[in-house]
Every structure is written in C-alpha cells, then in structure tokens.
C-alpha cells in the first residue's frame, strides 16, 4: 500500500516537484540531530534599565477589541474556559477522557489518541520520520494534532484579560510548561506537519497578546522558544507544488504573524500570502479546493493577518479586501444550511471550541465586520465578531440563479410550492492542483434545502487517515446525488488525498453541464440539465456516445424516510410529506446504513461521525435520448 501511494504521488508531480522533493528529503536528513533542542532557539530578549526580559510577541489591536466584547461573547468565553479547567476537551466528534483538574496537562496528553487510546511517538522520535500517513494502528492523526494546536488556550487567555481569572492563568502556564517539556524541537508528532506548527504558533501569539502581561517570566520564555523554533521550521520545509493548498496559507500566516508580533513585518511573506489568497479564493469568490469549509479556513487565516496588519498601520491592499468580500458573497449565496461540498476537517483559527455547524457563515460575517459592509448575521457569542467587528447591516441573499463560473457551482434560490428553496448544482473541477486533495468525485451532483432544512444532501467527509474504505465511499461518486456507471467513480482514487484520471466538467448554460469522467472506461459523457418549475424541478440525464445501465442516486438527510409506490418515492419528515421523486420506471431501491460502505446510505454531519440515512437509487438504461426524474415539493 505504501509503495502504491508513492507511485501514485510521483505520477502527480511535475519534474520540478520531484527535484524539490529529493532536495527536501536531503534537508530533512541533515536537520536530524543538527537543529534540535531548545538551546538553539532562545527567546528574543528586551534589555531594560533593571533587567533582561523575554520580548512578548503581541498582535496590535487584539487586546483592545476583545476587552470590549459584548455580554454574549463574555459568557461564551467563560463557558469555554470553565470546560477546559474542568479537564474536558472535545473535537472532531470525540470526547477526550476527562482529566483531573488538579493535573490537567500530563506530558502523555500530547500524544494520546482518544479513539484508540494509543499513543503516537513522542520526543524519542524525529518528527519527519514518523509515518502518520500510512500507519493506521494508532488511529487518525487528526485527533492528536487537534489538541496540539493549543487553540483551547485562547478562551483561557481571554478570561484572564476580562476577569483576571487566576485559575485560567495557572492553567495556561501549566499547559505551556507541559507542552514545552514533552515536545522539544523537532521531536514527536506535534512537529510533523507545517500547518500544525503554524496553527500552534498563532494560538500562542493570540494568548500572549491577550494575557501576556500576566504571564510569569518562565512562561514568557517558553512561548518565545516555541515561536523561535517554529519561525525556523516553517520556511525550511514549506508546502510547495502539489501540496501548496490551505497548508501553505497556514504556514505563511504563521510566519507573517510571528514576524509582525515581534515588531517586524516580513514583506516577502506578506506578498506571498496575498498571492496565495488570489490563487485559492477565485475571482467569483468560490474556493479553488472545491470545499467551502476549507476556503473559509483559508480566509480566516488571512483575515487575522489583515486585521493585525491594519492595526499595525500596514493594511493589506484593496485587491485583498475585494477578494475576501467576493468570498463572503459566495457564502451568502449558498443559503442556510449550506451544502457540505468536498472535505471538511473542521479546521479553525480563532475558536471557543465545540461544534460550529455555521462556521462558513461565521467567517462571511467576520469579513463583513472587518470591511464594514453588509453581511450575514453573526452568531451570538462568536469570538470572531468581537475581534473583527459586526456587519454594517444584514445582507439579503440573491434570489434566482447565481452561477460561480470560476468555481463551477450554480445556486438557484426561490419558492417551490410555497417553500423557500435552495438548490445547488456542481459543475466544477474535481479539486485544486494535481492531487485535488480535498475534492470529491461529485460532478453534476445536486443538493436541496427547503425552509432552511436539508433534504437532498452531500454525504459529508467522516474520516481522513483512518477512514480506509469509508474515506473512499464518502468522497466517491456513488455516495453523491449524480449518475454512476456500474459503481465506478468519475475520477480514480489513488490515495487518501490523491486522485488520478480526473473528470473534467463543462458548463453548457444555466443549470446545464456535462463531464467526461466515464469516457476512458465506457466511451460516454454524462450530461445533466435541471429545469425548475413552480412546484419542483425536472432533472434530465443523458449519456452521449452510447447506452449504459446507470444508477441515479439521491442521498437524503438523516431525519427523512421514504415510501416506494411504483415509479414514485414519497419522502417524509416525521410523517409529513416533504417531496416526491418520480423516476422513468419502478426500478427503485432504498437502502439505509449497513456495516460496510456500499448500497446503504450514510451522512456525516461532522468529522468523525456517520449516521444512517435513506439513499434512493434508480437503475436503468440511459443513452443519448436521456431520462427524466421529476421532483415535486409537497405543499
């Protein structure tokens, strides 16, 4: 399996990337044993008339903004801090075992996997030799990394700022001391990925900005050493070529904020960061990675940098503001709830923890607050609103048809049988760069929400490294609301974050597109047209170039159930009709759940969770003349 992964990864690389990877491997070997140990990374010092102090890294403006937080935000901060002080931590659909409040941060905590109860390598292992991609025996590396991001220290620091909470301050100091002792540079799994180094550095900078004046000299020194080691490591092994996605934005944001926090804006890093936003947030506001949540995460990283730059008197250019404003408009158009397109690993930058199902809307609202423009209503108690500001007014999403031609998504908003409806139609590329790491094989798939409730849904993500066959199912074509031939994916999976033989979609006009993902295997292209009407819509599917037995799939939200009557499926919620689907013939099957991926339907409401849900499948011959599925909304 490992050999196959390397072969497929090499096939995704251009010659320049192969040379880069070889050079990087040599640098990694050289760094082992040469660049390790805290002594090599002293904290910057400030000389005073009386003593020498560790220079405190702070982001301008952050402390003042949060000091003016409203009551809802203060209450949310206090609740998040209390949760940590009680020894609780939850992320990615899992609860870590409760810890004794008297010993919150044992050094073993930083390696502990809450799913398997196993331990990942610690200081005995060189970080770049730890196999977190292929060795699934310890669990999914995402869980261990989530705790090591130290983002849960931010509400503790905010509580210190707002209430002088002595317990919160003691917990911050204990956590920093424990992490520092357990994770020397560059040993253990916490140093194994640049994005993790960057997000942890950002957390520590925010903590220092909010509560640094209260920290002891020892804690200030340890923060300084961690940041100094991070500042060395991030540019040494950057994400480049086929890996230059959201990881690169995080690394650049970490470098930029470290420099700015110490009083020296790095202009080259600033320019690179702004250029990456231009690449990864497309001109129409959609995300190049084909996942709104990763686009929101990317924008949140850049937004924090732009906020700090503005406060420091070196604001980002107007072109940056225009690009993130376009992203906010894109999110606004998706409606509530937004479709769960592509991967979502719940990555955050500024968070109070817990589940945030409205995350992308929170970021759109934060953008509007930062720019002083109309936007989505912020959530009560959202930390970002306290920092970036409130929108100048509540925006109104556009009705009718909105096509994001750069990203390849069309959204139709309107009324169907008296219900507020939002329909999405995916005609975009598979993903970003040569490996399309976070895209799903969902060309020409549709989603539908009625009155703010999901009906036809994207199945979600579920798991990454430990997902195995489930990872492939949730991002494969048969799990999505599109056409499948003989269970094949439109694009070929060649690794947990890699694709080959990628389908290419072609936009043919409003709600009309095709893709070539089945040309190589079957000699046909799939063409789909959607025609909305007053009470529903008709979907016409064709196979140009031949006739094949195909499956049309419609994955329902988990709270819906079905009843088959001949060629019609009635969809209900709690016994009340929601819609009907009328197929070309009675060849219909409905499945729900199951022990393995396959005919049964599943949805993943968040990372690490999967729930059974009805999956409707019609099977029949489709050719150039096409077939029509009529979907009617109940009045």
Q: What would you say this structure looks like, in words?
A:
By secondary structure, the chain is an alpha+beta fold. It has 4 domains: 1-33; 53-236, no CATH class; 238-397, no CATH class; 400-633, Beta-galactosidase, Chain A, domain 5 (Distorted Sandwich), CATH 2.70.98. 34% of the residues lie in helices and 20% in strands. The chain is built from 17 helices and 25 strands. Strands 13-14-15-16-25-20-19-18 form an 8-stranded antiparallel sheet, with no helix packed on it. Strands 5-6-7-8-9 form a 5-stranded antiparallel sheet, with helices on one face. A hairpin with a 2-residue loop joins strand 19 and strand 20 (576-582). Helix 8 (194-211) packs antiparallel against helix 9 and helix 11 runs antiparallel to helix 12. The radius of gyration is 25 Å and the shape is globular. The N and C termini lie far apart (52 Å).
Task: Please identify the top-level CATH class of the largest domain.
Answer: Mainly Beta
* Beta-strand residue fraction: 15-25%
Average of per-residue pLDDT values = 95
* Total helical elements: 17
How many angstroms separate the termini? Answer: 52 Å
As for the number of domains, it is 4
Instruction: Give the proportion of residues in helices.
Output: 25-40%
Please give the order of strands in the largest beta sheet. Answer: 13-14-15-16-25-20-19-18
Q: Assign the structural class, choosing from mainly alpha, mainly beta, alpha/beta, alpha+beta, or little secondary structure.
A: alpha+beta
> Spans with pLDDT under 50 lasting ≥5 residues?
none
Counting DSSP E segments of at least 2 residues, the number of strands comes to: 25
> What profile does the largest beta sheet have?
8 strands, antiparallel
- Rg over alpha carbons: 25 Å
Using the coordinates shown, work out and report the CATH topology of the largest domain.
Answer: Beta-galactosidase, Chain A, domain 5
Architecture (CATH level 2) name of the largest domain: Distorted Sandwich
């Amino acid at each position: 399996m490992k050999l196959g992964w390397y072969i497929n990864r090499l096939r995704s690389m251009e010659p320049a990337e192969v040379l880069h990877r070889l050079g990087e491997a040599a640098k990694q070997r050289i760094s082992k044993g040469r660049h390790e140990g805290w002594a090599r990374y002293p904290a910057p010092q400030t000389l005073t008339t009386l003593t020498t102090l560790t220079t405190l890294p702070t982001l301008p403006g952050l402390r003042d903004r949060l000091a003016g937080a409203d009551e809802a935000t203060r209450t949310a901060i206090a609740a998040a801090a209390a949760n940590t002080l009680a020894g609780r931590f939850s992320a990615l659909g899992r609860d870590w075992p409760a810890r004794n409040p008297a010993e919150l941060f044992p050094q073993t905590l930083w390696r502990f996997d809450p799913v398997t109860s196993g331990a990942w390598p610690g200081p005995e292992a060189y970080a770049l030799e730890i196999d977190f991609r292929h060795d699934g025996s310890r669990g999914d590396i995402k869980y261990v990394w989530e705790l090591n991001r130290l983002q849960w220290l931010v509400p503790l620091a905010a509580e210190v700022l707002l209430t002088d909470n002595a317990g919160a301050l003691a917990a911050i100091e204990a956590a920093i001391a424990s992490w520092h002792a357990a994770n020397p540079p560059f040993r253990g799994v916490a140093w194994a990925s640049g994005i993790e180094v960057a997000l942890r550095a950002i957390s520590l900078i925010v903590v220092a900005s909010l509560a640094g004046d209260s920290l002891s000299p020892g804690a200030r020194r340890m923060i300084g050493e961690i940041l100094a080691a991070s500042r060395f490591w991030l540019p040494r092994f950057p994400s480049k070529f086929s890996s230059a996605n959201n990881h690169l934005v995080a690394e650049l944001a970490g470098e930029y904020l470290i420099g700015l926090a110490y009083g020296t804006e790095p202009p080259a890093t600033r320019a690179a960061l702004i250029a990456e936003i231009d690449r990864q947030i497309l001109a129409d506001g959609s995300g190049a990675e084909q996942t709104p949540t990763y686009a929101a995460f990317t924008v949140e990283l850049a937004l924090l940098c732009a906020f700090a730059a503005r406060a420091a008197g070196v604001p980002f250019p107007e072109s940056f503001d225009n690009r993130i404003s376009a992203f906010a408009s894109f999110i606004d158009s998706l409606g509530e709830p937004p479709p769960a397109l592509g991967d979502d690993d719940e990555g955050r930058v500024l968070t109070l923890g817990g589940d945030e199902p409205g995350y992308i809307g929170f970021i759109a609202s934060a953008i509007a607050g930062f720019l002083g423009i109309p936007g989505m209503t912020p959530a009560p108690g959202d930390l970002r609103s306290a920092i970036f500001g409130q929108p100048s007014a509540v925006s109104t999403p556009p009705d009718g048809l909105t096509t994001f031609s750069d990203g390849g998504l069309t959204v139709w908003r309107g009324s169907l049988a008296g219900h507020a409806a939002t329909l999405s139609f995916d005609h975009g590329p598979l993903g970003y760069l040569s490996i399309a790491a976070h895209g799903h094989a969902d060309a020409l798939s549709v989603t539908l929400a009625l009155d703010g409730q999901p009906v036809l849904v994207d199945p979600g993500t579920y798991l990454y490294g430990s997902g195995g066959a489930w990872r492939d199912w949730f991002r494969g074509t048969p799990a999505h609301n599109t056409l499948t031939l003989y269970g094949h994916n439109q694009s070929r999976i060649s690794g947990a974050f890699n694709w080959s033989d990628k389908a290419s979609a072609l936009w043919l006009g409003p709600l009309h597109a095709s893709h070539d993902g089945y040309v190589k295997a079957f000699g046909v292209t799939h063409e789909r047209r959607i025609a909305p009407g007053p009470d529903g819509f008709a979907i016409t599917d064709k196979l140009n170039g031949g006739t094949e037995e195909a499956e049309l799939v419609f994955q329902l939200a988990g709270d819906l159930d079905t009843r088959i009557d001949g060629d019609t499926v009635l969809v209900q919620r709690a016994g009340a009709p929601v819609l009907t689907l009328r197929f070309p013939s009675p060849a219909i099957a409905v499945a729900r759940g199951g022990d393995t991926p396959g005919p049964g339907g599943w949805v993943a409401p968040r990372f690490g969770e999967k729930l059974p849900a009805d999956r409707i499948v019609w099977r029949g011959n489709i050719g150039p003349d096409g077939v029509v599925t009529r979907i009617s909304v109940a009045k």
